Amino acid sequence: MACPGLFRRDPEIWQISQIYECSKNRERIGRLPRIASADLLLHPVRLRIVKAFLGDRALTTSQLASELDDVPSGSLYRHVALLTKAGVLQVVAERRVRGAVERTYTLRLFAARIDPDEVKAMSAEEHGQAFMAYVAGMLADADRYLASDPPDPIRDGADYQVGALWLTDAEFAELLRDLANVFRPRLAKPPGEGRRRRMVYTVFLPAAAEAAAEPSEPTKRPRTRRKSSS
């Protein structure tokens, strides 16, 4: 749900967004004004802003505005200011451009996640709205890719698949740990020459429980009497 890393899972199972922040940054989170992270992060525009910074990106508001060109600039700046005030975004550089201060921001992954208690407290309707925001973001990314000239999914490694697995809870936890081991070293790779930013979406949905079939009783064959020989 939402973008990768927004919902915390049991650390013994999997967190797709690994956190590489020092303890003083974690302490700073506790001193920031309390804003319900679900309300903060699941707003459609703020969710798109958070997604734009995924992958260890540093962006100015001008660069962000060019990527989210359908969002009015005044609205975009307000949402950036709110995310910065909440500690989700942080200013890493400032410079003067034509008399105005241009700030460069990065995402603080530790602050851009929703606590399990908040997830449990969300209603089914709220989960549905969050999932719709998640899917809308994915569709927007797909539209931007397909608008490239020309899109070539085979060359670019664009792929979308669906499958089903029969797993116990323990086997599912093992799968998540295996995926964590695959993703962890790759999430640590910074932007660099020859590297292309690739969006990864994950959705795990348990299917509706199937009613257990009642065991069928063995068919009884009628007993035949042997004819006595006369």
The low-pLDDT segments are 1-34
Using the coordinates shown, work out and report the CATH topology of the domain at 23-154. Answer: Arc Repressor Mutant, subunit A
Order of helices and strands: HHHEHHEEHHHH
How much of the residues is beta strand, in percent?
A: 5-15%
For the secondary structure, the number of strands is 3
Architecture per CATH nomenclature, i.e. the level-2 architecture of the domain at 23-154: Orthogonal Bundle
Task: Give the termini distance in whole angstroms.
Answer: 83 Å
**What does the overall shape look like?**
elongated
C-alpha-based Rg, rounded: 25 Å
In which range does the helix fraction lie? 40-55%
Number of helices: 9
Largest sheet: 3 strands, antiparallel
Class from helix and strand fractions: mainly alpha
Structure, briefly:
This protein has 230 residues and is mainly alpha-helical. The chain is 42% helix and 9% strand. The longest helix is centred in the middle third of the chain and has 23 residues, at 124-146.
